[in-house]
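re: ur question from earlier - yeah i can do the single chain one, its not a big deal. heres the input i used so u can compare w yours
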Amino acid sequence: MAGPIPAQAPKVQVSSNGLEATLTFKIPDGKNEVPRFTASQLLGFLHSANVTFGIDQDALERLADNPIYGRAIKVAEGTPQQQGTPGYFEYTFETKFNRKPTIRPDGTADYMSIKTIETVEKGDVIAIYHPAIQGSRGMSVRGQILEPKPVRDLPPLFGRGFDRSKDNLTYTALISGKIEVQQGKILISPVHEVQGDVGIETGNIKFNGDVIIHGGVHDGAIIDAAGNVIIDGLIEDSEIRSGKDLFLLSGVKGNEKTVINCGGTLTAQFVEYATITCNGNITADYFFKSKISCNGRVELNGNNASIIGGYVSAVQGIEVNDIGNSFGTITNVAVGVDVERIAAFEMLANKIEAINSNVMKIKKGIEDFDKIGQERGINYKEDPRRMQLLRVRIRDEAIVLEETKRLSKMKEIIVSGKDATIKVFRRLYAGTNVSVDDHNVAINSDHDRVEISKSPEGIKLTRLVGEASLPKNKK
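and the output i got, formated as tokens:
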């Protein structure tokens, strides 16, 4: 066994990660004789501190010949563990898009900069899997094994429209179309693509997927798509219906004949003389004398961000630079939930309650048939009267299910409109009629930089400094 460690022996220190050991010789006090230690003794001090791996014998020899005082000298170094790399997928297509226009240095919005979808061709490699690489063990200076963190492989990708190689490493498109990642799945869907304008020459388009038009739409043409619709050119005198998002990158000159219905979000450079209904948010440069209604928010971008004339309604709020103009053009804007929407919600709720009540009566009638049959020993299951009751019950239960879903969506929209406001970042002009929920007021003078909201007293305009309250005028 090793003897006791001398009082003047160098101090052994091991780093917190166990990968380095040092010796520190005490600075001589000038009074006592300075002890000298052989390399073998220094090795013994290390062993006494359980340092047994990665010892630098040459360093011990040098310190035995020429001690360095008052400074920690590395004399042992362990082997760090090498961390592994978890498995990952390398996608060869864009998975995220910024669907808002970039703002040019002059303050205008560049709608052609918007990238809406990613497309692939049949046979394209769409993803490559890189398997997990396990790490390697290390060793501390005290001889302890250092384990790397375990890494795992990912399961194969699922979805539709593609195939994967037998080794699950390469994924290839089976069809040409739009590609996207939804909840971890890759989906490739068919796309109807038109290289020019849509009008009399091409006829109407009805497609159960996405539609991309690299020109404009005019001459009364109808575009009806279950998915997204992207139109690069100008919209004139036409009808557009999209089940999902709608991108009108050159804007709309509606000539009071264009009707647009969007099931998702809508992005347009501008809208003039058109009627638009949108289930989600709307982003645009400006609206001019149009009738626009959306269940989300309206956000107008760039220097021209304005609403002039017409009627604009957004359940969740409006953000805009200017509303109206210096000529006093009558402009109507509304946010929140109006009395008509509340009435429609209550009417649907009453309808569901009435149908449910009728279903309960029908169930009671069927039970009565079955009870009488048991008492008389007769099977009434094929009785025409019972069969008719059963058919009505099935029909009404299906109606209740669908109408309940619709009621739930209506409730979500109503809740989302709570505390909706109109933010005007530049000027609210006289001639504007403002509505917030069931309150409305006519603006008779210009106001700069205001937020319009509802208060117990009516509609309130909050400025950057101070507030102005307008009298309540219910519809």
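Residues 88-134+146-189 form one domain. not sure if urs matches, ping me
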